[in-house]
Amino acid sequence: RFGTEMVGEDIVEVDFSKRPFAIKSDQREVRAKAVIIATGAVARRMGVPNEEKMWNNGMSACAVCDGALPFFKNQPLMVIGGGDTAVEEASYLTKFGSVVYLVHRRDELRASKIMQKRAFDNKKLEIIWDTVFEDAIGENFVTGARVQNVKSKEVKDISVSGIFYAIGHTPNTQMFEHQLDLDATGYIKVKAGTQETSVEGVFAAGDVHDHKYRQAVTAAGTGCAAALEAERWLAEQNV
Ligand SMILES: Cc1cc2nc3c(=O)[nH]c(=O)nc-3n(C[C@H](O)[C@H](O)[C@H](O)COP(=O)(O)OP(=O)(O)OC[C@H]3O[C@@H](n4cnc5c(N)ncnc54)[C@H](O)[C@@H]3O)c2cc1C
């Protein structure tokens, strides 16, 4: 209806110093007067031996998305991490699991004081300090987690039905590193209350600029906002 052309190619390079902007895939270069970036972010994984086999079979990187699934209900669950997200996700999972173990490699949390208090006050949340996650156990679905205490070196298996990584996300912004302002963790910075990036005519939407909500509905919402802003910006340029 709008003449949109869908192309399934990987963008490998952009040049936002030229106008129209240059966007290169491995097959061609296109020029555009406005660009909306929505390349998303990838949840970090640890790459433990059974990870591929157990992914979506009890292993996940999104407690908010998957925590309410029926097979986690009233089961022991585990969260790996120690920051605000990990504590938030572990607290959230206590609504569903019988107990939630928060495995953290240090002897104190990186999470904010308020989040720590929330964790310590939660009777269903048990923090396993100084411990690293080694592997998921199970045949077709997670039945346990192998962990190691970094101080005593003791290895033990804990019965759990769900293992949730909460060790951060990596935004897909490598190709924008010298083109746009990014924050310290690589997310695209937008001007407050807008989807405008540091380059006029380039807009960002979705997880690539949002480390806070990372939800489909917020991504779609900011996508809509970016489209409206791009359209208005083009109209202002008499395009
Ligand atoms: C397991 C899981 C379950 C989830 N469940 C829910 C849920 O129940 N509800 C909810 O609201 N949210 C959920 N989410 C979060 C939701 O999926 C994301 O917030 C949403 O998809 C973000 O949309 P996006 O368009 O910003 O990025 P994405 O959906 O990640 O899309 C980015 C796209 O950009 C493409 N891309 C990246 N780099 C390039 C490149 N160089 N060239 C070309 N294309 C590129 C990618 O291939 C991808 O297609 C879940 C996430 C996960 C991981």
TrEMBL record:
Listed name of the protein: FAD/NAD(P)-binding domain-containing protein
Matching PANTHER family: THIOREDOXIN REDUCTASE 1-RELATED-RELATED
SUPFAM superfamilies according to UniProt: FAD/NAD(P)-binding domain (SSF51905)
MF (Gene Ontology): oxidoreductase activity, acting on a sulfur group of donors, NAD(P) as acceptor
Stored InterPro entries: FAD/NAD-bd_sf (IPR036188), FAD/NAD-binding_dom (IPR023753), Ferredoxin-NADP_redctase_2 (IPR050097), Pyr_nucl-diS_OxRdtase_2_AS (IPR008255)
Residue span, FAD/NAD(P)-binding domain: 7-223
Record carries keyword Cell division: no
UniProt keyword annotations, A-Z: Disulfide bond, FAD, Flavoprotein, Oxidoreductase, Redox-active center
